[in-house]
Amino acid sequence: MAVFTAVSLDDLTLLLKKFPLGNAIAIKGISSGIENSNFFIETERGEYVLTIFENLSFAQLPFYLQLMRHLAERGVLVPAPVPDESGELVVPLHGKPAAIVSKLEGTSQMAPQPVHCAAVGAMLARMHLAARDFPLQQPNLRGLDWWNDTTPLVLPFLDERNAHLLRAEMHFQSAFAACDHYHRLGRGPVHADLFRNNVMFVGERLTGFFDFYFAGCDTWLFDVAVTVNDWCIDLATGVLDSSRVRALLDAYHAVRPFTADEQAAWQPMLRAAALRFWLSRLYDLYLPREAEMLTPHDPTHFERILRERIATPAPELFA
Ligand SMILES: Nc1ncnc2c1ncn2[C@@H]1O[C@H](COP(=O)(O)OP(=O)(O)O)[C@@H](O)[C@H]1O
Ligand SMILES: N[C@@H](CCOP(=O)(O)O)C(=O)O
Q1: Looking at the structure, do residues 78 and 202 belong to the same domain, yes or no?
Q2: What is the DSSP string of the chain?
Q3: Do 133 and 279 fall within a single domain?
Q4: CB of 51 shorter than 6 A to ligand 1
Q5: 210 CB under 6 A from ligand 1?
Q6: Among 76, 102, 128, which residue terminates a domain?
Q7: Where in the sequence is the domain holding 132, given as residue range(s)?
Q8: Is the CB of 54 under 6 A from ligand 2?
Q9: Which of 86, 173, 232, 252 is most enclosed, with most CB atoms within 10 A?
Q10: What separation in Å is there between the alpha carbon of 110 and the centre of ligand 1?
Q11: ipTM value > 0.90
């Protein structure tokens, strides 16, 4: 269930009067997704995706939609937002913010091979470079400040072993974020949630990244670590698969070469990326929002990955 706000063909017909897309032909709710109400829409100009934002406000949305537009204009494969007749990317629909973006071809590749990981690594590096001159600023809202705020909220729900892991990792990550080479890491707008379900492929051809609603400004290496921790692991154990890791990192490095500071920060960053999703999954499990309608993701998956990243030396970032 992922259509929280219903939209009829009549509603769409009215909405499209403000867009250069011709008349509405069809609308179909999309059943996957957990945050927003999404619809495939067919218009006289082609197929698009309509999103009603259930939790983000009008004020928060320009960062995400302008970033997608900025990237699309620079040839990065992301959905391009469609402006209405007055140039607005975000419009009201049933009292909530809504946007129309281009529909990506293809489906998610949930069992990626090295060839898919290489395509993701190269596009991620292109994205980081293309966003360097993006003028809007927003921090990663799921960064260290959020971890500091969230840790005391989830600690009471944890057994002693996990509470110890969380406290120790927060201590480690606070020290890491304060060290010199952390501050020398390249940074800019990052996707911050580039999991398998947020990338489309047709066969081995990557057709786009989507779901930019956790994007923010952070280190590029954090984005690489989030991506590797999902694309390059054995899902049952969290152990990194060396051929997929190599394919993703080498393809990234060929577009935006990693630095020595990034090499030094790589293992702590893989831990940071695991901690971020362990914490958000714990928070969603133990402190669900009132409107939450779906089964939360399993936090133990990222607890396992975090323990694994602490115990096992990280693969070389580059040769
Ligand atoms: N631009 C797009 N092109 C094609 N499909 C899309 C696009 N945006 C979303 N989708 C489809 O909608 C589903 C839910 O989108 P998602 O952004 O993950 O929702 P949520 O933000 O609610 O988690 C995706 O799994 C994908 O199938
Ligand atoms: N990738 C996150 C959850 C975010 O969900 P999405 O469907 O919006 O990508 C996780 O796995 O915890």
Answers
A1: no
A2: ----S---HHHHHHHHTTSTT-SEEEEEE----SSSEEEEEEETTEEEEEEE-SS--TTTHHHHHHHHHHHHHTT--SPPBPP-TTS-S-EEETTEEEEEEEPPPSB--SS--HHHHHHHHHHHHHHHHHTTT-----B-TTSHHHHHHHHHHHGGGS-HHHHHHHHHHHHHHHHHHHSHHHHTS-EEEE-S---GGGEEEETTEEEEE---TT-EEEEHHHHHHHHHHHHTB-TTT--B-HHHHHHHHHHHHHHS---HHHHHHHHHHHHHHHHHHHHHHHHHHHS--TT--SPPP-HHHHHHHHHHHHHSPPPPS--
A3: yes
A4: no
A5: yes
A6: 102
A7: 114-311
A8: no
A9: 252
A10: 15
A11: yes
